[in-house]
Design a protein that fits this description.
By secondary structure, the protein is an alpha+beta fold. It folds into 4 domains: 180 residues, 2-Layer Sandwich (Nucleotidyltransferase, domain 5), CATH 3.30.420; 114 residues, no CATH class; 118 residues, 2-Layer Sandwich (Alpha-Beta Plaits), CATH 3.30.70.370; 106 residues, no CATH class. The protein contains 24 helices and 18 strands. It has a 7-stranded mixed sheet with strand order 2-1-5-4-3-6-7, sandwiched between helices. Strands 16-17-13-18 form a 4-stranded antiparallel sheet. Strands 9-8-12 form a 3-stranded antiparallel sheet, with no helix packed on it. Strand 10 and strand 11 form a beta hairpin. The chain is globular and about 85 Å long.
């Protein structure tokens, strides 16, 4: 270990930054880590930068030194930088003026290697990996000593910092054996490179209009309280619920009499609510949203309760608690877990992928100045294109190639004469429209989405099947979504698969593959792997088998979509770096990438953004059927 610092530490060899760089620039692979005073890259301080290999570890104390020349190592695309939980370090280094390129994240790689396997809590921490792979106990007792640290460092702190990079290269070498064994080289490269895109997104953040946000929450509170009165009325008016009526309500002298509750029932308690609901539905076992949604038509109280819960969640999850997650710059800087089971990402602190569905919440996210505009792009019918690619169904492929409405095309074949007989005059599905005297432009291929009332109903039923394919949906779920009987849903599914046997064969082959191997992969070139922990060659449990078959159908479709979006994120970042374009990526939600663009560059970015998305799609679906759409707005929108 060698220290680069303006301060001396007894027992530690000192070194100049120039001598360190002379050594570092000759190494093809380096370990990299940082120590900080906290977790917030905006408000906490970068204390130490550790970089080196098994032989030499350089611990750099940046305080009082000009270490800008280190960027020639960190930004060098020919030198691999091995980190553990790289996003954390990259954001702190970015805040300090450094750019990190060509990373390898041992934590991400370990998640890829064991994706889906049972693991104990903390299994992916650095000390756990070093213990498991290298049989070395890494002392982490100094880890918390850096929080809020001021002054000189102790020898123990510096040794701890050096050890965090000392073993990274050997750890990478041990992981490499399994990367090759499981054919994960391409997806490892993908995840390591897109990690830098996610770091940029987290670093950039997005400004929140707190005043507008609070107005939304205030309105939600009014709606919640209104629904609470409706629910209370059931207790007061229904003889079945008299035992739940309050015999004495506490009086609040500050609350108007008309606003005081006359019952003391706690609608936020699932136990109490279940007990009450069982008075009208004795066989009910849960008051979960999914279960109640399937039976809400059986009693008006059920749907009213779900409405109450919706507004209560808005107030609880997206009220002051949400605003408290803003950083000191007034922005939301979410945190991504970039490898979920299927390959999709999740978002936390806060979860930006579960914002309320209406634009009045998204519109509260605004650009830093009016010189910037929101530009979002998403893949059009991404999962349907992936199913078409995997199944090679001729009808699906032809409809996508011609730009026809796939759901309507499928509905026509599933319902036959019923579909034809439901056409209204001037049905867009049957009439190929061209430019008319008004200048309105219509599609010229025919088989477009129409406004015929009966067609809309039939189309929605087939649409539910089309999208449900990606989730292994059965008749029970389809019945609840379409509000039809389970027998009718079963008949619809059977007719659908008779109409599209190649789709059925494709899904069945995925299910069989997962059951025969104990894992499933996404499409080439990435072949992300998901293991099934309940699998064994002798498995007979029908419930577990059904779960594996369902996940085997879902993962290649959803996971391939995730791979495609990640490829697009990488290309966006490269474009911004190469061109110096005034564009920032601030969010991604499944098949969508959201950016901010300076208005002066908008026309160029509109064209180039679409090209980036569609070229990314070609890496997986070379037919070019997967297209991208564009949305431009002054505030973030769906």
């Amino acid at each position: 270990m060698k220290l680069i610092s303006a301060h001396k530490v007894k027992g530690v060899e000192r070194c100049s930054l120039s001598d360190a760089i002379s050594y570092l620039k000759e190494q093809p692979v380096l370990g990299l880590d940082t120590e900080t005073t906290g977790l917030n890259f905006l408000d906490n301080e970068l204390l130490l930068i550790q970089i080196g290999d098994q032989t030499h570890q350089f611990v750099i104390d940046p305080r009082g030194l000009d270490i800008s020349s280190l960027n020639q190592i960190l930004s060098n695309k020919n030198i691999v930088k091995v980190l553990h939980n790289a996003k954390f370090d990259v954001k702190f280094l970015k805040a300090a003026g450094f750019t990190v390129e060509n990373i390898y994240d041992t934590m991400l790689v370990e998640k890829l290697l064991n994706n889906g396997k049972f693991q104990i809590k903390g299994a992916n921490k650095l000390n756990s990996l070093i213990k498991r792979y290298l049989k070395i106990d890494l002392d982490k007792t100094q880890q918390t000593s850096f929080i809020g640290h001021r002054g000189d460092f102790s020898l123990s702190q510096l040794q701890y910092a050096a050890d965090d990079v000392k073993y990274l290269l050997n750890l990478r070498a041990r992981q490499d054996h399994f990367i090759t064994k499981f054919n994960l080289n391409n997806v490892v490269a993908l995840e390591n490179e897109v990690c830098l895109s996610f770091a940029d997104i987290e670093f950039n953040g997005i400004l929140l209009d707190k005043t507008a946000w609070r107005e939304n929450i205030a309105q939600a509170a009014i709606e919640r309280d209104s629904m609470l009165k409706v629910l209370d009325a059931h207790i007061l008016e229904n003889p079945l619920f008299y035992t739940y009526a309050s015999r004495g309500v506490q009086i609040d002298l500050l609350t108007p009499v008309e606003d005081m509750r006359r019952v003391a029932f706690n609608w936020a308690s699932p136990k109490q609510v279940l007990d009450l609901f069982q008075k009208i539905l004795p066989d009910l076992e849960s008051v979960g949203a999914d279960e109640l949604a399937n039976i809400k038509s059986e009693h008006p109280l059920l749907e009213q309760y779900l409405t109450y819960k919706k507004y209560d969640k808005l107030v609880g999850s997206f009220g002051e608690k949400f605003l408290g997650l803003c950083y000191s710059d007034g922005k939301i800087h979410t945190n991504f877990n970039q490898i979920m089971l299927t390959g999709r990402v999740s978002s936390s602190r806060p979860n930006m992928q579960q914002l309320p569905a209406t634009n009045k919440y998204r519109n509260c996210f605004i650009p830093d100045t009016k010189d910037w505009v929101f530009v979002s792009s998403d893949f059009s019918s991404q999962e349907l294109c992936i199913i078409a690619h995997g199944s090679q169904d001729p009808v699906w492929l032809d409809a996508l190639e011609k730009g026809q409405d796939l759901h309507s095309v499928c509905a026509e074949l599933v319902y036959g004469d019923k579909w034809k007989g439901a056409a209204q005059e001037d049905c867009w599905f049957y009439i190929a429209h061209t430019n008319d005297e008004t200048g309105i432009v219509f599609k010229q291929n025919g088989k477009d989405k129409c406004s015929c009332k009966a067609h809309k109903d039939l189309r929605n039923k087939v649409k539910a099947v089309n999208f449900g394919l990606a989730y292994g949906m059965g008749p029970y779920t389809l019945a609840s979504r379409l509000d039809i009987s389970e027998e009718e849903a079963q008949e619809l599914i059977e007719t659908y698969f008779k109409t599209f046997p190649s789709i059925q064969k494709f899904l069945s082959s995925l299910a069989s593959s997962g059951m025969s191997q104990g894992y499933i992969t996404t499409y080439p070139p990435y072949t992300r792997r998901r293991w099934f922990p309940d699998w064994s060659e002798m498995l007979t449990d029908r419930k577990k088998i059904a779960s594996i078959e369902r996940e085997s159908k879902n993962t290649p479709i959803q996971g391939t979509g995730a791979d495609c979006t990640k490829e697009a994120l990488i290309r966006c970042r490269k474009y911004i770096q190469k061109t110096g374009a005034p564009v920032k990526i601030f969010m991604t939600v499944h098949d969508q990438i959201d950016t901010l663009c300076h208005r002066d560059y908008l026309e160029t970015w509109k064209k180039d953004f679409i090209q980036i998305m569609e070229r990314a799609a070609l890496t997986i679906i070379p037919s070019g059927n997967l297209k991208a759409d564009l949305t431009i707005s002054d505030a973030w929108a769906k």
